[in-house]
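DM from R.C. (forwarded with permission)

"hey, sorry to bug you on a friday — could you get me a structure for this? deadline for the figure draft is monday and I only need the backbone to look sensible"
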Amino acid sequence: MTRHARSRDSDGGKNQGRGWHLCLFVAGRDAASAQVQDKLERICREYLDGGYRLEVVDIKQDPARADAFDIIVTPTVVRYGPPPERRVIGDLSLTGRVLSGLGFPARSTNPVQDP
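My reply, with the result:
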């Protein structure tokens, strides 16, 4: 089975098994999906001190993975580590909503600005 997902360790794999584990589900590889991924990566870099792993799954290419996570709306971000699992569904443009929804620490020296 071919997986149609991209994974990125923020620390080049040095922190493997520790930190935050996230999966972003998108529908297609269009400009909107790229924008959502960019926004989430900026938030992760800014608020998680480099200890995160982000996997991006295109549900059009990997519908079985979406079914396994019960994904019915995109974009959806699933934080599956550390427990408990948390999700943010839909618009990721509001940084505070993403931080709160995923349970990220709300601290930063240079906060990501909302549009």
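R.C.: lifesaver. Confidence is low (pLDDT under 50) at residues 1-17.
me: no worries. Strands lie at 5-9, 20-26, 52-58, 76-81, 86-89.
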